[in-house]
Amino acid sequence: MFWEIFDFLSSKCSTKTADWLMSQTKHRPQVAIICGSGLGMLADTLKCQDSFAYSDIPGFPQSTVQGHAGRLVFGELKGKSCVCMQGRFHMYEGHSLLKTTFPVRVFKLLGVETLFVTNAAGSLADCLQPGDIMIIKDHVNFPGLVGLNPLCGPNDDKFGPRFPAMSGCYDKNLRCLAMEIAKQLGVAGLMQEGVYAMVGGPNFETIAEARLLHRLGVDAVGMSTAPEVVVATHCGLRVFGLSLITNKVVKSYEDSDSVNHEGVLEVGRLRSHTVQQLVTELIGRMEINNNNTNNAA
Ligand SMILES: O=P(O)(O)O[C@H]1O[C@H](CO)[C@@H](O)[C@H]1O
């Protein structure tokens, strides 16, 4: 009974939010971008902007983390209609996973076909340095593996199947195109593909946890992204993801370094221009399949 009411309300709520947004803006986005910590400037490149504070959007959660402004910005980038979240929601803020991923379903209802996710992450791989940009090839959803998954509860068949496949959830063609663009921009030296892992946060990892993640084959770790990608893949969106490496995760008891959120935001500011260039070029050059038939509407 609880789940039925919960499911009914969340599905109704995303429709209400999408309808409200469509009544407030003429933009009909094909691409949605979620900005990670310190990467909110991606929204500044959009032309002909319409923007809304999350607090003014019916049903939208609120951002509480520094570096996440809490604005939804519509506009155009290289001739493509886009919507950009300047600020995402994290499980550690106390949002349910359904709330955390709520905007993704709203995007689906708006007609979005491709989701760009960006995040700040700590590197475990020795070859990834602060300032490098990792194209996400795959993820390990640690909360999801123990049942903290936004798709738990009754399945909403309007959005997707009960048991969605997650292999190949980061689109291969977009990953290849991104690498090609990086070469043309002369920043290929900063870029490589890797595996992102989501942990619950909000504390950064202990040394033992860092060593465990490293041994498991994780290249970069953060506290977001996987739930958004799971929900996007469930409802048939194409996904492209970038992690900006903001720090090395401490893996040695001899190492006196320690990570903090200010430092994470600072690297975001330093690399903002490159991330912006990559995302803009990729959006400009990618083909839109228009396969969002919007069955969920
Ligand atoms: O994943 P994003 O939102 O980019 O932020 C990352 O940076 C914050 C920690 O500094 C955490 O929220 C972590 O997930």
UniProtKB/TrEMBL annotation:
Oligomeric form and interacting partners: Homotrimer.
Functional description taken from the UniProt entry: Catalyzes the phosphorolytic breakdown of the N-glycosidic bond in the beta-(deoxy)ribonucleoside molecules, with the formation of the corresponding free purine bases and pentose-1-phosphate. Preferentially acts on 6-oxopurine nucleosides including inosine and guanosine.
Pathway, per record: Purine metabolism; purine nucleoside salvage
Organism: Amphiprion percula (Orange clownfish)
Name of the protein this chain belongs to: Purine nucleoside phosphorylase
Entry binding sites for a purine D-ribonucleoside: 205, 247
Primary enzyme class: transferase
Keyword Glycosyltransferase appears in the UniProt entry: yes
Any one annotated GO CC term: cytoplasm
Catalysed reactions, semicolon-separated: inosine + phosphate = alpha-D-ribose 1-phosphate + hypoxanthine; 2'-deoxyinosine + phosphate = 2-deoxy-alpha-D-ribose 1-phosphate + hypoxanthine; guanosine + phosphate = alpha-D-ribose 1-phosphate + guanine; 2'-deoxyguanosine + phosphate = 2-deoxy-alpha-D-ribose 1-phosphate + guanine
Keyword terms, alphabetized: Glycosyltransferase, Purine salvage, Transferase
EC number: 2.4.2.1
Domain of life: Eukaryota
Binding residues for phosphate: 37, 68, 88-90, 120, 224
InterPro entries named among the record's database cross-references: Nucleoside_phosphorylase_d (IPR000845), Nucleoside_phosphorylase_sf (IPR035994), Pur_Nuc_Pase_Ino/Guo-sp (IPR011270), Purine_phosphorylase (IPR011268), Purine_phosphorylase-2_CS (IPR018099)
GO term, biological process aspect, one: purine ribonucleoside salvage
PANTHER family per the UniProt record, alphabetical: METHYLTHIOADENOSINE/PURINE NUCLEOSIDE PHOSPHORYLASE (PTHR11904), PURINE NUCLEOSIDE PHOSPHORYLASE (PTHR11904:SF13)
GO molecular function terms listed in the Swiss-Prot or TrEMBL record: guanosine phosphorylase activity; purine-nucleoside phosphorylase activity
Similarity comment text for this entry: Belongs to the PNP/MTAP phosphorylase family.
Stretches assigned to the Nucleoside phosphorylase domain: 31-283
